[in-house]
Amino acid sequence: MRNKYSDEFKLQVVRQCLRGDVGIEELARQLGLDYSMVRRWLEHYRQHGPSGLRQTRRHYSAAFKREVLERMRRDGLSIRQTEALFDIRAKGAIGRWQRLYHSGGLTALAPKRKGRRPMTKKPPTPPPPPDEERSHDELLKELAYLRAENAYLKKPRCLDPGEGHGDAGQKAQAVQGLRHEHSLALLLRAAELPRSTFYYQIHALGAGDRYAALKVRIRAIYDRHKGRYGYRRITAVLRQAGETINHKAVQRLMHQLGLKSLVRPKRYRAYRGAEGYAAPNTLQRRFQAQRPHQRWVTDITEFKVNGQKLYLSPVMDLYNGEIIAFQTGPRPVFDLVKGMLKKAFGRLTPGDRPLLHSDQGWHYRHPSYRRLVAEQRVLRSMSRKGNCLDNAAMESFFGTLKAEDFHLNRFDTIEQLQQGLDQYIHYYNHERIRLKLKGLSPVQYRTQALDAG
């Protein structure tokens, strides 16, 4: 890197130092310069005058470098004094020469050649001697190797036209199948396979698959839930059955089996605007409950089948995520919500006063809705305007329902879809485990809590 300071600037700095108005350290601080660099300029000026400040490019021989090092050692000079004495402008050069000399001697001080090193030509491979000069044993050995190589290349499992020479396991199988006809050493040479690798692969092939039974169970769980379970839920099911296994092992085995959860999360978004009276957001995204029928959430979602529509209005208990009531219908009329409310209120026991949270849809602003809720002394809560995250628990259920049932199955009629929704919600409540519920289904979790209480 070239010095960014001109010769005239260096000369001005040195002359200010020699005038003695301020010290070297203070002058360097004022000019924003390195103190050691200013001292070096001053030393060079004292030894060589203005020419010692000029920028030059010099190449030093190994003999000169050795002379500099010996003079510095003999007279007890510092590196800065030695640089000024011999007019060496390159910063850090003497220190670098010292390290090279101590590590490699005088030859290490020689200038290195720049650029790419010339390529060394390999000596030509001597041609093989003619057959008449080779011994009978040598010819027999070469013939045996050629026969082994030819047999190896013809082995069906050895070469795959699309994959080249195959992996080590395929090579080991091919060699093992030819051992009764040819020498093992010749076959390994033809396959370019180390002997240790060959024996390791043969041992691994003979050991069998210790996860065979577990793979069968994983596939059975996967098929029973129609591809809805990923490796985490399958791990939870296996642990419930008494299997001690890490989730990473289940993930690896599912990858080997080509099994992957078919669920792709989707989220339903809808907003109808503000009409009538809206209740405050009392829930405040507290999607947990300490007991059943403490906090409920509800909403409406839409399905389309062959140009026809079906609407679902469920109520979820935030205690265990259970769908305690739902109603379906071809039109999003108030009777849809009214029927759902009557079913949900039928689950209440004396003393239950749940908080019922919804969005600001017109159904939940309707006077009849407010009357039905007030009769049961249920406290209303509503999401903020256009904010679906305030009812995220219900939106999450809709996404799971559509991902695990609606998008994975084909429904030709509304009646088929209604039947499918009934079956899935029963499955969701009674069979589908939730990791947040200690690996239990909502109904199992609620029943277990009631039995413990």
From TrEMBL:
**Region (Disordered): which ranges?**
108-136
Q: Where is the Integrase catalytic domain?
A: 288-450
Q: Which PROSITE patterns match?
A: INTEGRASE
Q: Name the species this protein comes from.
A: Billgrantia desiderata
Q: Which domain of life is it from?
A: Bacteria
Amino acid composition bias (Basic residues), ranges on this chain: 111-120
Q: Name one Pfam family in it.
A: rve
Q: What is this protein called?
A: IS3 family transposase
Q: Which InterPro entries match?
A: Homeodomain-like_sf, HTH-like_dom, InsJ-like_HTH, Integrase_cat-core, RNaseH-like_sf, RNaseH_sf, Transpos_IS3, Transposase_IS3/IS150/IS904
